[in-house]
Amino acid sequence: MTKHIVSVSLGSRHRDQSGELTLFGETVRVSRQGTDGDLAAAEAMIRELDGTVDAIGLGGIDRYLVVRDRRYEIQDAVRLAKAASKTPVVDGSGLKDTLERTIIAQLDQDGLIHSGQSVLMVSAMDRFGMAETFEKLGYRLVAGDLIFASHINYPIRTADELEEMARKLLPEVTRMPFSQLYPVGIEQTEPSDPRYGRYFEEADIIAGDFHYIRRYMPDSLAGKTVVTNTTTAADVEHLRQKGVHWLVTTTPVLEGRSYGTNVIEAALTAASGLGADSPRWASLVTAAHLDGTRLKLND
Amino acid sequence: MTLLDALQQFVTECNQNARLREMNRDWTRRIQLDPDDTHHHHWLVSDAGELSAGEGLVKNPDMLIQAPEDILTQIFSGQMTPTEPYNAGDLLVRGQQDDMMRLDILTLLIWGE
């Protein structure tokens, strides 16, 4: 029997899409439904879906930010998750901390990226596993959390400093309205703002949240490798025109779109009945063979 | 502790911290603090990351912060984070959201955890 999951997103409705995924022999119908940044609408949609689908993903917002041994919880996401009492609600953080570490290590092992290269992670507190893996493998890390989320022109250059900042900032920042922290709804389609373009120009690899990448990238990304997800076919074409060499998506592409980690985590939960807090989660992710994709966009 | 003491402590912490100076190197702003109970005005100025503070009015402020004087004192001395009074409606800020966020981040980096 086909499973059905819905990702309720704070992102733009223009990016809605549906598709099917096969996991462990189960077909999972996935659907992404944007709410244009309207938290109350997202809450109402989750309440309506509760008990009618096999899992719900939270899109355009993280519930958990996992930074080493600490887990911080964004309060607006807690409010959304609590709108469902029967259906599991997941945010993708369980995949980010497992799958994305593996994907970076695999890219390095396959020689698509090379130790010593510089990496701009446009935001890393939401993808600490990826940042830590880059650093452990010998890449030069620049985390742009303060630059792109708060317009404070200060690059964070080590995972230790990132962890220290998270410890000081996140207990408080996670209590703020999410719209103050991250572009939601129509903000996700605002024109490019290249004022921090030099951080992109100095990097060999651009990684992390696609909305930040799209919003702040300069005119040219010639020769760069981009590691992200949530890209549509139009986004891929846009990156091709910018001169991107490789586009790596950390989640599978379905009908031209790489979905958010919340979608894939919801599909895994629906297919397996397990959540990211299960001791079997890491082996489940491995067994699912959730390969991302590698697209050579330009020579 | 008075509000002026708290502001001077905040200024010292920012100016003596190399990381905070780097963060503020391109930040030039005039901030007016208006305690809405005492109306004993104070100001905070960042001149390319060099902070200063004092009593009275500042010309053409970029930002206006209003709250009871005790709350302002507690915020700038790290005894209270701005989120709680802001969410409760006790703290009113007029200005750019980026500047509000920066002040939050500065106080948290000085006194957070």
Structure write-up:
The complex is a heterodimer of chains A (299) and B (113). By secondary structure, chain A is an alpha/beta fold. Chain A folds into 2 domains: 3-95 and 254-290, Rossmann fold, CATH 3.40.50; 99-252, Rossmann fold. Chain A is 34% helix and 22% strand. Chain A contains 12 helices and 15 strands. Chain A has helices at 39-49, 75-81, 93-96, 99-109, 128-136, 145-150, 159-173, 197-201, 210-216, 233-241, 261-272, 281-287, and strands at residues 3-9, 17-23, 26-34, 55-59, 64-67, 70-73, 89-90, 118-121, 140-143, 205-207, 225-228, 246-249, 253-254, 257-258, 293-296. A 6-stranded mixed sheet of chain A has the order 9-8-10-11-12-15, covered by helices on one side. The termini of chain A are far apart. By secondary structure, chain B is α+β, with helices and mostly antiparallel strands. Chain B has one domain (3-107): SCP2 sterol-binding domain (Nonspecific Lipid-transfer Protein, Chain A, 2-Layer Sandwich). Chain B is 43% helix and 24% strand. Chain B has 5 helices and 5 strands; from the N terminus they run ααββββααβα. Chain B has helices at residues 3-16, 18-23, 69-76, 83-88, 97-111; strands spanning 29-35, 42-47, 50-55, 63-67, 92-94. In chain B, strands 3-2-1-4-5 form a 5-stranded mixed sheet. In chain B, helix 1 (3-16) runs parallel beside helix 3 (69-76). The radius of gyration of chain B is 13 Å and the shape is globular. The mean pLDDT of chain B is 94. Classes of the chains: A alpha/beta (299), B alpha+beta (113).
Summarize the helices and strands and which ones pair or pack.
The complex is a heterodimer of chains A (299) and B (113).
Chain A lengths: L2 E7 L7 E7 L2 E9 L4 H11 L5 E5 L4 E4 L2 E4 L1 H7 L7 E2 L2 H4 L2 H11 L8 E4 L6 H9 L3 E4 L1 H6 L8 H15 L23 H5 L3 E3 L2 H7 L8 E4 L4 H9 L4 E4 L3 E2 L2 E2 L2 H12 L8 H7 L5 E4 L3
Parallel strand pairs in A: 1-3, 1-4, 4-7, 8-9, 8-10, 10-11, 11-12
Antiparallel strand pairs in A: 2-3, 5-6, 12-15, 13-14
Chain B lengths: L2 H14 L1 H6 L5 E7 L6 E6 L2 E6 L7 E5 L1 H8 L6 H6 L3 E3 L2 H15 L2
Parallel strand pairs in B: 1-4
Antiparallel strand pairs in B: 1-2, 2-3, 4-5
Helix pairs in contact in B: 1-3
